[in-house]
Amino acid sequence: MDSSQDPHPHPHSPGLSPHLHNVLTDLHRRPYPHVPNPPLCKKRASVALILRVRPTYDHWPSPTDIDIGDPELSVEDRLDDFFAQPWVKYGDPEVLFIKRASRPGDRWTGHVALPGGKRDPEDEDDKAAAIREASEEIGLDLTTDDCICVGNLPERVVTTSWGSVPLMVLCPFVFITTRCDSPMLRLQPTEVASTHWIPLRALLSSSLRTVEHVDMSQRFARQGGFLTRLAVRSMLGWMQFSAVRLLPAETVQCTSIPGFVPDEQSDKGSSSSLIQRFKSWLIRGDLNRPLLLWGLTLGILADFLDMLPPHTTVQQWKYPTFTAPDLRFIVSILTYNLRKRNARMVKSGARSTSDTALDAETAALSVTPGSNTSKHDDNEVGIGGLGVGRYYGPSDRASDGTSYAVGIMLRGYYQRLRVAIYVFIAWRMALGSAAAIAGWRLIRRRLR
């Protein structure tokens, strides 16, 4: 077995670092094109995918072994020099995530995400926005000599969850720090609750694949109040999304956020508000759920991770569905042919563009210059975990502009999902009507 595919590699065998080197070099050589804003959508946002290599116990560097590199060299030369160091070659690559602070009305409250935010008018470009947001949210300067800006990942148009209204263009950028120690992070209390360095090995592990359950009643019954939402929730159940359970190698908590240390009043109130706690459980679920990567952020990471051995990240990704058994069955039936067709497109696309990837099974599809932004992709892919966002731009693979594996797999899926919900509602109404008629007949017989 290839040591890079072994979840527990031998300490004297190179791990993922050589493969990461190839991926980063490829991303720098073939940057994804700029995606303009769709009509009536002016907002842009950027996120920073920040990587580092943690030294292992058997290959710990001495002060004389550490070389942050010459910033005057080209990016490829800097990457070559960095990954040539023994402690890097045998090190453990990691990705930095944040857990957002809990804020009322925030769509992403408490979610695991990448550092980032909206582009301001004073930002020179999208990359400058990612650098500024990383500095403001976690206090990490990505412009220092010990940090390399590698390139970007596909830009995507983020839409409303069940609509086609574009909200913003999301631009992910990839950075790697050449330091061997942990940088001091300064977390902004109103934005970030904690930061977590997650090993790539953990993100690639099939044993950490799980699901996230999301209450969709708020989207279907916005004006109906608690009882309406409860009725919708009891009928539809939870919506289920593919997720990865995160195992942090290092965590930094923002201890200054309100509620980090419970006070006496909040502690007393917790035992007397059983109704509120029951209501919270019915609507929002368990607030102490484990640290999960899912939704939009998982979509950004999926294709990047699929370039790394064992190249199964996209295969492990599961389509969104519902927990109600009959609705789940209807979704499965109505989307069966579409899922098979999209899977074949991903597989054939990866093979035909292997010159741009690490091997024949990667989902990093090539793009060519051109313009194809006028055609609107009808996939309802939004920020609430409904998919991974959309990439509008030139592509040599698809007429609608999608050129990343998860985007191709989701093509047309949400249209079928909406139809499945309509069929499910009709089925439940028919079933309820039949049960009511049978009950009424039974009552009439007994009354005679």
How does this model look, in words?
- This protein has a single domain, classed as Nucleoside Triphosphate Pyrophosphohydrolase (Alpha-Beta Complex).
- By secondary structure, the protein is α+β, with helices and mostly antiparallel strands.
- Helix 12 packs antiparallel against helix 14.
- The chain is built from 14 helices and 13 strands.
- Strands 1, 2, 3, 4, 5, 6, 7, 8 and 11 form a nine-stranded mixed sheet that branches. Strands 9, 10, 12 and 13 form a four-stranded antiparallel sheet that branches.
- Helices cover 37% and strands 17% of the residues.
Q: Secondary-structure element sequence?
A: HEHHEEEHEEEEHEHHEEHHEHHEHHH
By CATH reckoning, the class would read: Alpha Beta
DSSP strand content: 15-25%
Distance between the termini: 77 Å
- What is the residue-averaged pLDDT? 78
| Count of the domains | 1
Poorly predicted runs are 1-7, 283-287, 350-403
Q: What can be said about the biggest beta sheet?
A: 9 strands, mixed
Shape-level CATH architecture: Alpha-Beta Complex
The chain-level structural class is alpha+beta
How many strands? 13
Q: How many alpha or pi helices?
A: 14
Cα shape: elongated
